[in-house]
Amino acid sequence: MLIRWLFGVVGILAGLHTAVEAVHPVEDKWSKLEGSLDEDALKLASAQELRYRLPSYIVPTHYKVSLDTQVHTGNRSYSGSVDIHLDIRQQTKTIYVHNRGLRITFNELYLSDSAANITLLETLRYTEDVEREFTIFAIRRAIAPAEYILRLDFEGQLRTDDDGFYMSSYRNENGTRRYLASTQFQAISARSAFPCLDEPALKATFSVEIKHHPSYHAISNMPIFAIAGDLDGNVISVFETTPPMSVYLLAFMVSDFLYTQNVEATQRVYARPNAVNQTQYALDAGILIMDAFDEYLGLPYSGFMPKVDQVGLTQFSAGAMENWGLCKYREEYLLYEPGVTTYRSQTTITTIIAHEYAHQWFGNVVTNKWWSYLWLNEGFATLYEFMATDMAYPERQYRDLFNVQVLQRVLITDADESTRPMTFSRGATFYAILSLFDGIAYSKAGSILQMFGQVLSPSVWQQMIRLYVERNVLGSVGTDEFIDAMEEVTDGMDLLPEDISAESFVTSWVEQAGFPVLELRRSYRGEIILTQDRFYANKIVTDDPTIWMIPYTILEQGDSLQTPLQWQWLSTKAVRIPNTTPDNEWVLANVNQTGFYRVNYDPSNWYMLIEALIEEPTSIPLHSRSQLVDDAFNLARSNRLDLEITLELMTYLRHEREYPPWEAANRALTYFYNRMRGQSDYVRYQIFVDTLIGDVLLTLNVTSVQPDERLLDKYLRQVISSWACRMEIESCLTDTRIALEREVNGEERVHPDVSEVVYCYGLRTATTNAFQYLYGKLEGSDNRAERTVLINALGCTNDTEQLEAYLLTAIGGELQVDFDMEERYYILSSVLASRAGVDALINFLTDNFSYVANTLGVSILNSLVQSIAARTNTPAEEQLLNALLQQLQPVLPASGIEAARSTVARNLAWPSTREGVLLSYFLERHSFQPA
């Protein structure tokens, strides 16, 4: 499953944050978690996990599910029946079935013998355990181990929270609201659709039939076997039986959606009728990506399932979901409209399709046996969303996005003291399980798997994962099965040292929290001293007992970048190794950042690396350049490296022409920007940034795109042009204004690949008519991704009246678009792109905080307040925030108010901190001049 915050737009504001900061949806959590992860409650849930687990003697083998819905009328009521075929493996008088909110109206228990004869035994008494979500059936006389069928009739209500079996809607081309029913069962919400045994290891086959109005049609995991008319004028869609699979992968939908198809590839893409013309790209990409997986894994998808459908939904909190044969997505993660969809959205669409298709093997064919092993599902999907797209579209270089968009970002979050191991459980309740769908299960796991693959070599890794899938086909797995495959493939290959087994290698990374920093210190007398310690973002700990089995490579100055490097190992806290590198030449470890750790050097080696970067950047491999920037910044922030070394290293960027190092640099530049804005040295900081980007900016056209332009060059342009306009470089502001006004005047449309920068910064110096034009464009658009771009752009205006009017549209007013709740939050967040917008938001919340709290939720109000606090740098700004906090005291939790004040206190104190003083000294000493 691909998880994203329902209201997770703050990180993608076009005006303040560039493409490099936009969080890939895979890394986000579900909005349902917000405010629900009380630490004490999670500890209790973990301690009581077994109370919420099913007894092991009850094993489902088959479900026959029948449903009856009239969703076409907007009616939420539905009814159904389910025959659950059970393998009872010990004598018992009790049967447990999961049930969340369903009313059981009838039940019968049958004995099923080997000849497929069934014998009615009895109607059972039962009790409801609402807390544990069990219906517990009591049998009058104990039954012996055998095959049984539990037949249940039930009634339910379609949910409205995008979970379980839920109702959503859209507006057709006439503006009429149309309803549909769809499903989202991962992690444990199948039980809210029909009674079942809702644990991932309990695989069974499923036969589904759905009764619905003939103007609608139903789809499910499998193709339709037959459609029969009913006496009441409705029809019944009967589907073929699935292979054995986990119940959370069952899916169905009843709607009036249309589709695009490729009959030969047995793939279809569904969308609402007024958006079906945006489905062709997803169909083409799905075919290419599926072919890539078939060839790479050697186990064709068609050997398991006869078809795959993709569906774009207007309401789908999960982001995307890998249901076997029926993948579901939010519209903006599936639909592509030529001339409208940006390169960033196309990248997201492509990689998310690959993510869900990877799950067809890693998650569907082979499934985590319990949610503590979720990383075995999501880690593979995260890694191969980039690797499979790279195989399908090699010209786009998707593989080069992985480290900067996945690995480096999760290194930041995994440096927290509160981080967890990859293999980990918090219990068996809804929120406890869903809290595991985090950056550790996705991004860290994907990064660790990349490291495993590089250590084994790509060819051996391919053999290993083929064996891993083949050996566990239609089964459930944990870490042991993964290790077994690695041990078998590497046996006799001399890939791991004698003292490091596959088990010790794997478990050191998946069963321990955090990651190490590898300290490489040269004696300059023929030795290197290597040490490892756990890396924390906010402190240095040298006595932490944790030891990782660290594979590393070393590149020496003058070595060919094409020569394969030898893996070496650090399996103790420290070691001395011989080194023949001349004292005046650099060494580089963890080449191309293949290992999941940071690397620190002695100052002399750092300065030699800096000199090499300045003289000839390409003497250092591309991803190592990115790593050096990222590591240096984070090492300095944790006081492991002198900040001056980091800043000196960053001066090489004026010679850098590739995107990955600039993305790493962007995080550092943004951090310093957020601290420096409003300070006395801010102008010096502006000149410093101007100096870094000046030479690169001269090579770019801010407002146009060439037909043969590389994808990575598009990312680079957006990083550089965003900084140029943010630093108020006149040429950038002028070019974006002219491009925007040309579109406003009907002369030439802005290319979608530069629209985020052009609309945002062009609006700041354009006429009032430009704001009205963009708002009208938003009113006329039903493309979700385009609407987000326009919402963010409108928030970039610096005009106070426009900001005030725009914020009012989030709650109504003269200007009004049919915004949903998510978009209302997008509007409120979008104005954070400028200080003028922050001030406008403070004024808006002062008058309208009760609306935000009651309609969007207190957690959203708190999020906005924390965002304002993060942008409060001066005493005058603090005074404005304090006045707002005074107003919010009856609504906002005391912890939220205290957190905001603490953030502001840190911001105001920053100029006199070690970081602040060193940065100020560096800027003053160098007296940078823009290129």
Notes on the structure:
- With 931 residues, the chain is of the alpha+beta class.
- Among the domains are: 58-256, tricorn interacting facor f3 domain (Immunoglobulin-like), CATH 2.60.40; 262-360, Orthogonal Bundle (Neutral Protease, domain 2), CATH 1.10.390.10; 372-511, Neutral Protease Domain 2 (Neutral Protease, domain 2, Orthogonal Bundle); 515-614, Immunoglobulin-like (Sandwich), CATH 2.60.40; 800-908.
- 39% of the residues lie in helices and 19% in strands.
- It has 27 helices and 30 strands.
- Strand 6 (125-129) and strand 7 form a beta hairpin.
- The model is unreliable at 4-24 and 26-36 (pLDDT under 50).
- Its cofactor is Zn(2+).
Low-confidence segments: 4-24, 26-36
CATH superfamily annotation of the domain at 58-256: tricorn interacting facor f3 domain
Name of the CATH architecture of the domain at 58-256: Sandwich
Radius of gyration: 29 Å
Reading off the top of the CATH hierarchy, the class of the domain at 58-256 is best stated as Mainly Beta
Strand tally is 30
Mean pLDDT over the full residue set:
92
The side-by-side strand order for the widest beta sheet comes to 5-4-8-2-1-11-14-13
**Structural class by secondary-structure content:** alpha+beta
Major sheet details: 8 strands, mixed
Strand content: 15-25%
- With helices defined by DSSP (H or I, 4 residues minimum), what is the helix count? 27
CATH topology of the domain at 58-256: Immunoglobulin-like
Helix content: 25-40%
Distance between the termini: 47 Å
